[in-house]
Specification:
Layout: E1 14-17, H1 30-42, E2 47-50, H2 62-76, E3 81-85, H3 91-104, E4 108-112, H4 121-134, E5 139-143, H5 145-148, H6 154-160, E6 166-171, H7 176-185, E7 189-192, H8 198-203, E8 208-211, H9 218-229, H10 233-242, H11 244-251, H12 257-267, H13 283-299
Parallel strand pairs: 1-2, 1-8, 2-3, 3-4, 4-5, 5-6, 6-7, 7-8
Helix pairs in contact: 1-2, 2-3, 3-4, 4-6, 6-7, 9-10, 11-13, 12-13
InterPro entries: Aldolase_TIM, DapA, DapA-like, Schiff_base-form_aldolases_AS, Schiff_base-form_aldolases_CS
Catalytic activity: L-aspartate 4-semialdehyde + pyruvate = (2S,4S)-4-hydroxy-2,3,4,5-tetrahydrodipicolinate + H2O + H(+)
Function: Catalyzes the condensation of (S)-aspartate-beta-semialdehyde [(S)-ASA] and pyruvate to 4-hydroxy-tetrahydrodipicolinate (HTPA).
Length: about 300
Amino acid sequence: MTSTHQPAPPFGRTLCAMVTPFTEDGALDPDGAGRLAALLVAQGCDGLVLSGTTGESPTTSDAEKAELITAVRAAVGDRVALVAGVGTSDTRHTAELAVAAEKAGADGVLVVTPYYSRPPQEAVAAHFLEVADASGLPVMLYDIPGRTGTRIEPDTLIRLAEHPRIVAVKDCSYDFLGTQKVLARTELAYYAGCDEHVLALYAVGAAGCVSTVANAVPGHFAAILDAFDAGDTARATRLQLAAIPLIEAMMGAGLPGTVTAKALLARLGLPAGPPRALRPAGRETADGLRARYEELVSAW
């Protein structure tokens, strides 16, 4: 049996929320970013999200964001979609970053709810609409109230879906009921932004995932979606559950995903470097991450 899973994904299906590699002294490492991006694509990603939460966007300059897009585009060519994080608390600045991302070669922009200021829903909608009008790029809204302090409420998402360039949502809302409400009433392409929800959200109509854990195991998440699309839901379930120990170690152990992803990539000899504005993971944590990684790859 073959799945007829819809909708067609606007930015690919298996996206990695890529770390931003830095040199040991904390400078942007564009060569490392290109090498990591090429590896992620070779191992199963058909889209990359740059300068998101995992990409430490609050700590990089506007010039570094543009340089990162340019470096990754040079490394992967036109084979995959590049979605550039441009969200800030300032609507005007966010719009400027969207224009800059378009000039640098991005295929879309990821726009988070203005954080810290906790705007009401009318202001949230106005922010997104102004940014969507600022460039010709399609927009992925980023609903992550645990970081921003403000939800994009389902009714607001349904309204925003009427804009022709607002096409997708990265869902970290932890509101499965609200997500299904929006899926049922709009054509928005939903991407699971929480790795433990990849299969569950895909099963009710999502377009794919934007995964932090995919920095280390991109092929595993592609395999989950492949199995579901092939109608082998039992295999898709086994693959999702097999990833839980690594997901928990990276995303549920009290450290930001940026920190754990960079620690694991460093243990694997891949470009990462230290995080900015965050303490790196200790040796014991890095050892545990490597152990969970080895368990997963050896099982599959």
